[in-house]
Structures
1.
Amino acid sequence: MEKAIITRGEFLEIINGVLASMENTGRPITSLFPSDVTKYYFGKRTEFSLDKLISVIENDDLNLRKSVSFKVVFVFSILSHFRGNFSFSNYRFSRHILWSLLYASLILDEQTEIYVGSQGFYDLTLYRYFQNGKFKVLRVHFWDKSSQNILDQRFKIHSHICYARSLVFKGEIENSLYTVKNAKNGELSLFKLKWRSPREKKMAIRTSYLVNTNQPVSCIKDSSESISQGNIYDVKEGSYHSSQPIFHDENGDMVITLFLFDYSLGSVEEGFILGPSGEKTSETKRSPIKNRNALLDRVDTIFKYG
């Protein structure tokens, strides 16, 4: 990994977001206080090189603190890559190091769940940052053959309420953009995503529903682009897109993306999903996957030997 520096303030900010993401899975982290963890590692230091900090964390004997701190380093590295604050001189090598940190973090803390997403992937929220009504959320998306079975192709085209960026961490993704317009006799309609309660909406978990707004629309595909490993693609707030993995190995291929929602880069009031005009509602159950460790072990094997 290229030598990079993390300051005390950056560590504290990110650990707050990491712990917030763990609370939003329904498991409050009451035994860890961000300021205490920061003080434990930094002491009187104002900054650390990442490689030195990693070695200090590796010697920690408290598994939960170690797990959270590995995740902090991972999130810091990915957010820095998105911002362009530092670059990876050898991206392939750095991907392996970063994955090993995330893998170790998740193995140390088996209560952190990976969920079934609605867009053809399994997802894990790593970081949630809320301030003054604005937010930033970082997720890992795991795409494989089995995850594709959960995607209802009729509802794959959608928009987001805020600007989004996606880093292709492993494999290759095809991203398509669309123009959507109101159309009196359109075969498609705009659907809204709703939850049973405000709490579940905030946490984005459990059961959600796609509800037809009865606004018919037309949809034209404008473009499709293949994004290779190590590259970033952007999705503007309010624009319509769909993404799908490109598999090169029929047996064991895996695509991994790191998806960042960043309200500070732009936002709209609502996001929509396109679906058949004849449908009234569609239910989505965002439940934890049953084979969490098997998935992680498989990804780890791919990074080691793939």
2.
Amino acid sequence: MAYETAHKKIRSDKITMCQIYKHKGDKQTTGLWHYRFRFDNKTMRRSSKERDFAKACIVAEDHYDDLRHKAKYNLPTSEKTFKEVYDLWWQAIGKHLSSHRQTSFKTASSNYFLKYFGKMKIDSLTSAKMPAYITWRVANYKKNLRQRRR
């Protein structure tokens, strides 16, 4: 559990900035500024990963503005992971496929897609991440082949 320092409010009290102690008895904070704000009936908490207050405020305000922009233009504002989106897809579509296709999807997703992309935020997936996935996939495929041959 983290313990917070005094709070500083910015953006007309919509965003709260603070530093945290790792342990209750600590004399010094981690030095990193954290922020939180309410959006869409949820509290968003993040580390700005900045030690400078002014830079930390920019990170927090950018996050807040980005979510507001998405909401204004009816874009998805949730920060779901690949696994969460995959699970929603599976419930809506995947489980209604033929048993052969279900088996194919389960095998590919559990061996490759979910292992590599599972914890990534869906909004952060871009085509720039594909070359690293392909390299990982080829190496992982060869490893799986060797294990099956034994």
3.
Amino acid sequence: MEATVWISLAGLSATVAASGIGFYFSQKSQRSPLRQELYKKQVEYLTEFVVLATRLQMLAAGYKTETMSFKNGSEAEQVWESIAEQLRDITQRAGLVLPAAAYSTMTAYRAAQHDFEDALIAKKDLAQPLRTLTGAMSHVFMVGREVLGADNLSSESIRLHSSKGYENMNRIGATALGKVHEALWNRGKTHPK
């Protein structure tokens, strides 16, 4: 073969390689905004769900301690129904963008919510349904943190700003969580009915 053929083949090969690399990076740059939007939606839905589920937990604790009553048409019953409807809607939207494990925990929470409501309407003891509801809420919360990578991102941030890392945050966290837990479980006990 002549030298011009070799030069033509080398030029053609380089053009194909450059085109392939360009195509790869072009596709990658187009997917990056989609990933960012997906992550943004995941954060939005998980945050909305946790906030509403926390409100429902507060109502459930009030029903258990009988500081609130679940009578047909009462304000408390209407608030419960409104929050339950919002949780249903968020769960359905989140099912499109969350991993299956996170979506499953949300549906498990909603099942526990229905069990609590059934026990409430039947005027049964609410201790076990409330524990199940609380456990399902914790599960959603922890799986949500995993999906969002909160621990990894937080760990990097803490290492940047503190030489002791998680240790100081763990002491603060345990104390704060203890106070929140005590406030939730003792709600209504210190106030006369």
4.
Amino acid sequence: MPTHVKCDGQSALVDKALFNPESNKLHLLSMLSSREATRAVWAMGVQGKPLMLELEGKWRALGFAEMTMKHEKLPCGRRHMLVVSKEAYASRVVIGRSLEEVEDRVWAKVTRIARVPLHQTWKTWTLEQLNLTRLEGLGGIFGVVLSGVDELERQVCEAIKAGTLCV
């Protein structure tokens, strides 16, 4: 069943969305509709008003702050608009097509940005140490908000000293 977003009497078809179920903060919204409807949804979000997203037959109010938008006119005459949070652009949101893919992408990102070298055998332990906020996704996408990388250096050093991690 198709999912929709509504605001100010306008409606758009949603093919992908990613949001925090606890804070109701939207991180990604991909929608298709008329030019007027997609602009109305964008304007509502910019004004800080909640968007109503249909989830399994029920409506849920979601908001977004500091978003960026890209839109494109399709050959059929409709508009596609992709709205992404600045937090996602700042690489704090990791997105994938499965939870396993998200986990692999988090590991790859952490090994690039961590100030200490991380061994592949430490992957499970490292992911447990991070503060990952799981996001709810629609349209076959999954995601997490990544934080806790700054404390990782101290945690790795302590785990090596304690014998939890082997060098």
